[in-house]
């Protein structure tokens, strides 16, 4: 039956139930699709991160190490030159200014202009000879820091300082003894050349190198303006170490990566500094791509989850609804079945008393026909009453017969048959009445329909019932009945439509119930449609009714196609 | 002479009584029984019975079983089945077992009377044929 008694309360509960099902599904799908993405990308990114860091560290370490060696070589070479000069020539020779000038120009020839000037300083700090662009002869260095250190050690390389000339430079000094007195040969290294040596070390856009002394003062000019005293790596620097062979030290903070190496016996240290975003640009790009892919994947998974869950939930909802309808149908048919059994019992039981009553009435009428009653004034009344008893008894008989055929358990003989022929037969049977009631019957029968397995007489009963109902509904006002057949997958669909007054909704739900009738008392038993329902149900078919008041009623019967057709 | 001798078999006593009165009034000789067993006894007692009106639905021995036994023991007696409901199956079965006809309860007395008369005619013609056959046989033997 097609009645969907939708309970609105249930509907609301179902709505939230389906929503929670859907929510759970989305969560599960998201979880399942996210876990591998997160795990894999996490692990891969972590390892890539480590590997890339190692690579960058190794590269930078090597770079700094090489640079450190370059600088050390540079300084040692200069120192060696000065030492050679000191050893090769005597104090007197070097005190000769033109001789000194010669040596400086010789140095210039081989070393470009690395050496700015040369000077000989005696143990009192007075520059006794000088060759170079500045007028520094007789300059007194007695109080200069470098002199104090230079006079105490065989050789000395100073920090960068401004000195008397007012320009940043540093000097290399070598001490020598002459008749018990120390003197010093002092060479000034061109700051620009030295600076270039360090400044040329630059990688990417933000990588640069500089040299600091132990007081964190710049010994070279950094490429960018930074304040070394604020540097975060300060604590890492061992300002007392004498060892210069330690491997480069790394330090990485939020913004920068720093690499240092000690130079010049730990007096200086070379710092290489680069912005993280520059040094790890490939890593960050990979991370960005991974993040993008993860976000894309996540949104894709989310969309899929939404879509799939919507489909699945709507399917579940549909199945639930179908199940509910089926449950209703089962309840309905169960109700009809038990009613049928009850009806059969009643029919059997009631028939005998009715038979006796009818016989008694018959006996009375037999007696009435005897002479002695012939003159009774109420004779005709008696006869009328007895006739009525007889008529009503027959009506009872009819009712019980119909009840029994509704509840009939034994099958009628079933045959494979062509539904169209049966319908034509039934329409033929109804022709007489249709003329009388001014109703036209149209048939639209699809040809070559497959056979069905059914009992001819039962199906005739079904269609006769339906047609007669339609006639009754039209109440002699005339109208139209149309019967159509067609195939729908493995079912035959027979539609019987009239344009009568239609059935109100309240009656529609009870229409197949036994004893439900809208006909006046005595005209209908209310069993016709119950019988139809029982027959169709027995054939594993279905019967539905659609009706709207004022437009008419349609009965739709679906019957399974006989197996032999397949 | 009565039209025919009938045995009415039904477990509903009241039905049997009334029906007996009505049939008596129509010049039938009616004996009655309230079960299949009683019916067989009645038949044994009286060889006059020509037609049995037999209800299908009875306790103990039902109408079909009673019919089978009657036909076995008294093949010439005609049986009309009375059914409480129009189960074609029981009617068909009854006919197969040799019932003359069937009627639905409650039935019109006139129809019943007509059927009983037909059955009697058939029974008598059967009997006559048998008598004739015997006569011929006896004559033939003599010759």
CATH class of chain B: Alpha Beta
Q: Provide a count of the helices of chain B.
A: 5
Care to count the β-strands of chain A?
16
Order of strands, main sheet of chain B, comes to: 2-1-3-4-5
How do the SSEs of chain B run, as a string of H and E?
EHEHEHEHEH
The number of E-state strands of chain B comes to: 5
Write the CATH architecture name of the domain at 413-566 in chain A: 2-Layer Sandwich
Q: What is the averaged pLDDT score of chain B?
A: 88
Rg of chain A, Å, rounded? 59 Å
Helical percentage of chain B: 40-55%
CATH topology of the domain at 413-566 in chain A: Heat Shock Protein 90
Low-confidence stretches of chain A: 1-11
The geometry of chain A reads as rod-shaped
Q: How many domains comprise the coordinates of chain B?
A: 1
- Biggest interface pair, residues each? A-B, 21 and 18 residues
Terminal residue distance of chain B:
37 Å
Structural shape of chain B: globular
Q: Helices and strands of chain A, in N-to-C order?
A: HHHEEHEEEHEEEEHHHEHEEHEEHHEE
């Amino acid at each position: 039956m097609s009645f969907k008694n939708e309970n609105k309360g249930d509907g609301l509960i179902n709505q939230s139930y389906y929503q929670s099902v859907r929510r759970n599904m989305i969560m599960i799908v998201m979880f399942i699709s996210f876990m591998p993405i997160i795990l894999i990308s996490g692990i891969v990114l972590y390892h890539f991160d480590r590997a890339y860091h190692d690579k960058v560290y190794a590269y930078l370490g090597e770079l700094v190490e090489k640079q450190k060696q370059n600088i050390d070589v540079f300084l040692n070479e200069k120192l060696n030159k000065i030492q050679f000069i000191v050893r090769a020539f005597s104090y007197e020779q070097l005190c000769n200014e033109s001789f000194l000038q010669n040596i400086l120009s010789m140095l210039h020839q081989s070393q470009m202009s690395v050496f700015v000037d040369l000077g000989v300083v005696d143990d009192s700090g007075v520059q006794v000879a000088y060759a170079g662009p500045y007028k520094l002869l007789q300059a007194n260095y007695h109080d200069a820091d470098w002199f104090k250190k230079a006079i105490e050690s065989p050789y000395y390389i100073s920090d960068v300082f401004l000195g008397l000339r007012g320009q940043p430079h540093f000097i290399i000094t070598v001490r020598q003894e002459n008749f018990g007195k120390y003197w010093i040969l002092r060479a000034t290294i061109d700051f620009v050349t030295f600076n270039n040596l360090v400044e040329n070390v630059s990688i990417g856009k933000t990588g640069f190198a500089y040299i600091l002394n132990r007081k964190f003062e710049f010994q070279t000019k950094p490429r960018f303006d930074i304040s070394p005293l604020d540097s975060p790596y300060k604590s890492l620097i061992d300002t007392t170490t004498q060892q210069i062979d330690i491997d480069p030290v790394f330090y990485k903070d939020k913004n920068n990566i720093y690499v240092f190496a000690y130079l010049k016996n730990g007096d200086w240290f070379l710092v290489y500094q680069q912005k993280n975003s520059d040094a790890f640009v490939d890593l960050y790009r990979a991370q960005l791509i991974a993040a993008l892919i993860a976000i894309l994947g996540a949104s894709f998974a989310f969309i899929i989850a939404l879509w799939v869950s919507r489909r699945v939930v709507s399917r579940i909802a549909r199945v639930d609804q179908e199940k509910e309808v089926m449950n209703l149908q089962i309840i309905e048919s169960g109700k009809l079945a038990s009613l049928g059994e009850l009806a059969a019992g009643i029919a059997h039981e009631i028939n005998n008393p009715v038979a006796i009553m009818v016989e008694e009435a018959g006996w009375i009428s037999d007696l009435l026909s005897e002479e002695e009653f012939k003159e009774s004034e109420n004779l005709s009344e008696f006869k009328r009453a007895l006739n009525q008893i007889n008529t009503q008894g027959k009506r009872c008989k009819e009712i019980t017969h119909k009840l029994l055929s509704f509840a009939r358990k034994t099958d009628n003989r079933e045959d494979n048959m062509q539904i169209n022929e049966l319908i034509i037969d039934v329409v033929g049977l109804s022709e007489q009445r249709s003329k009388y009631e001014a109703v036209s019957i149209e048939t639209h029968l699809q040809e070559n329909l497959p056979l069905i397995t059914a009992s001819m007489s039962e199906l005739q009963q079904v269609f006769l019932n339906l047609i007669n109902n339609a006639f009754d509904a039209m109440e002699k006002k005339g109208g139209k009945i149309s019967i159509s057949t067609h195939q729908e997958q493995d079912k035959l669909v027979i539609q019987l439509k009239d344009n009568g007054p239609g059935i109100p909704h309240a009656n529609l739900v009870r229409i197949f119930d036994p004893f439900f009738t809208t006909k006046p008392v005595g005209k209908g038993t209310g069993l016709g449609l119950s019988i139809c329902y029982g027959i169709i149900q027995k054939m594993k078919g279905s019967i539905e009714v659609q009706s709207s008041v004022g437009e008419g009623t349609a009965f739709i019967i679906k019957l399974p196609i006989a197996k032999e057709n397949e | 002479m009565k039209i025919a001798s009938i045995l009415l078999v039904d477990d509903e006593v009241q039905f049997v009584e009334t029906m007996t009165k009505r049939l008596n009034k129509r010049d039938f000789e009616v004996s009655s029984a309230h079960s299949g067993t009683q019916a067989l006894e009645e038949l044994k007692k009286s060889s006059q019975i020509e037609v049995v009106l037999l209800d299908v639905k009875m306790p103990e021995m039902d109408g079909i079983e009673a019919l089978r036994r009657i036909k076995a023991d008294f093949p010439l007696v005609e049986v009309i089945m009375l059914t409480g409901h129009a189960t074609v199956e029981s009617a068909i079965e009854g006919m197969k077992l040799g019932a003359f006809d069937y009627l639905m309860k409650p039935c019109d007395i006139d129809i019943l009377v007509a059927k009983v008369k037909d059955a009697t005619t058939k029974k008598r013609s059967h009997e006559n044929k048998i008598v004739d056959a015997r006569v011929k046989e006896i004559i033939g033997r003599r010759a």
